[in-house]
Design goal:
It contains 17 helices and 15 strands. The chain is an alpha/beta fold.
């Protein structure tokens, strides 16, 4: 339950703190005093959307904080929980749960365990088909619980097998597609007949082939410059030096060096002549080199950055093909288990469907009785339980949808098609009344669900809210004296002007103040007659 709610700088609310209690808490007060802002604040602290226009004029931030008290439950949450959300006028959020910072989505998920808000335009839970299933199964209770647990255990194993088969290419079509792809890749690489240093060799040949004309031209020029004349001139110089090499050692040394140059120049001349003979341009060979390099580049784009990497990849996919082909026996065992589980799941799902079908009729009838009390005599709820044969869901094979007919002679429509917010609110109230014992939501907030009703319907709404408050903390903003009279705790919301600024105030009313407030909202003024009427309404609370 909410123990304390603290709101700061939202609309005309400057800074208020509300201590709430178990049972039925009813908030009444002047029009425009800030009652709806309190509901807005609860939506904000529940992770709802926030507009910076809601920040009080002249302030830089808004702040909502509440203290939840939760007895130990199945989630092991116990004791006081402090939740807060601060929003800056630049749009930045700071959300905390017991001092730990969380995201808005984490806050929303956490608070969805504790607070459910229903108002003229806020009955989204009623429109969610997933919650329709929860409503029905909650109504059925223990009769369906064991079967659902048995089904869920099978369902989890079923999904494990599906995932394992997927990883093991257990689906025949997927497996064959994968094998075809891998074998195609192996064949493509094998047909290329790659060699590790081939790319470098081909690129060198290509470079020479492209530059062959330039190479021959310059080799000829070099050969001509060296030529026989240069060699003959050096030979003659050597013979001249030989005639004086005996005179001085230095002449002998020069002669020896010149002989080495002579021999090297002869060798270089032979090499250049040889190189000239090697250079040629063959169109057919050039085309082969270009095609071969294009093939290598194409394979590199697909399978690796180098020929070495391509060959390594080839070995890897060969091993993958062997692995997939050898998985068939293991996959067949999994498929057999999967088929056995499907048979068991189908059997349990059929039993669950039968239970739901039977109880959907009972639940529809009870909700319709509540709707009749709420002056929706022509409205009829019809809960559809549709069995989906070709699919498995976590909760069985059923899709649960609440349908409603609001007027005689009209076709039934899904609950989400209801146009009237008042009808939606009363429908939710009727459902909550029937499911009060099984519904585990601690706090239910009703924002002016009494709009547009009076008389007998008003009394019925009050009784149903009171009944719901036996198992939940209920917060209700109301304009009806019937609801105010039956409350366990009454809060009066007002506004005053101080220093040319309007601000909201809230007060927990004493018993005599409750009587006066019931009198005020019953006719707009407090006098002897309205006080007497208010006292009579209040006295009915005890009965």
């Amino acid at each position: 339950m909410i123990a304390t709610l603290h709101i700061k700088n939202i609309g005309i609310i400057e800074d208020i703190c509300i201590d709430l209690n178990k049972g039925l808490n009813v908030l009444t007060g002047e029009t425009g005093a800030g009652k709806t802002l309190i509901i807005d604040s609860l939506q904000i602290i529940s992770g709802g959307r926030f507009s910076k226009e809601m920040i009080r004029k002249g302030e830089t931030n808004s702040f909502v904080e509440l203290c939840l008290y939760e007895p130990e439950n199945e989630n092991s949450i116990e004791g006081n929980i402090i939740v807060s959300r601060e929003i800056q006028n630049n749009g930045k959020n700071m959300c905390k749960i017991n001092g730990r910072m969380v995201t808005v989505n984490e806050l929303k998920e956490f608070m969805s365990q504790f607070i459910e808000i229903h108002g003229q335009n806020d009955n989204q839970n009623l429109l969610d088909n997933k919650l329709h299933l929860e409503y029905l199964d909650g109504f059925i209770g223990n009769q369906i619980t064991n079967k659902k647990q048995e089904y869920e255990k099978l369902y989890n194993r079923y999904n494990e097998i599906k995932q394992q088969l997927k990883q093991n290419f257990g689906d025949d079509k997927e497996r064959q597609r994968k094998l075809d792809l891998l074998k195609y890749q192996i064949n493509e690489i094998q047909e290329a007949n790659l060699r590790k240093k081939e790319e470098k060799e081909l690129e060198e040949k290509r470079k020479i082939m492209i530059n062959s004309e330039k190479i021959v031209e310059n080799l000829n020029e070099a050969d001509n410059l060296i030529g026989e004349n240069s060699i003959d001139s050096i030979s003659m110089a050597i013979r001249a030096l030989e005639k004086i090499e005996n005179i001085d050692e230095k002449y002998e040394k020069v002669s020896a060096n010149l002989k080495n140059i002579y021999y090297e120049l002869q060798e270089l001349s032979r090499d250049i002549s040889s190189y000239k003979e090697e250079i040629y341009f063959d169109e057919e060979e050039n085309n082969y080199i270009e095609e071969r390099l294009d093939l290598i580049y194409s394979l590199k784009r697909k399978y690796g950055n180098t020929i070495e990497e391509i060959l390594i990849y080839q070995e890897e996919i060969k091993n993958e093909v062997d692995r997939i082909e050898n998985l068939e026996e293991y996959n067949n065992k999994l498929k057999k288990e999967q088929k056995e589980i499907e048979e068991k799941m189908n059997l349990i799902a059929s039993e669950i469907h039968k239970i739901r079908k039977e109880n959907a009729i009972k639940l529809s009838k009870q909700i319709n009785n509540e709707l009749e009390d709420l002056e929706m005599k022509n409205a009829k709820i019809n809960i559809h339980v549709d069995y989906i044969d070709e699919e498995y869901f976590k909760e069985g094979k059923d899709i649960i949808t609440f349908y409603i007919t609001t007027n005689i002679g009209e076709d039934e429509k899904e609950l989400s098609k209801i146009a009237s917010g008042g009808e939606m609110s009363r429908t939710m109230l009727a459902i909550k009344k029937v499911l009060a014992d099984s519904d585990k939501m601690p706090v239910l907030v009703f924002d002016e669900i009494d709009t547009g009703i009076s008389g007998k319907a008003a009394s019925s709404v009050a009784k149903k809210l009171k009944a719901i408050s036996q198992n939940h903390q209920v917060l209700c903003i109301s304009h009806l004296p019937n609801i105010a009279a039956i409350a366990d705790y009454n809060y009066y919301i007002s506004k005053n002007v101080k220093e040319e600024r309007t601000k909201t105030q809230i007060k927990l009313l004493k018993e005599n103040e409750v009587i006066e407030e019931i009198a005020r909202i019953s006719s707009g003024e407090v006098n002897e007659i309205t006080l007497k009427y208010a006292t009579e309404l209040r006295n009915k609370k005890a009965s």
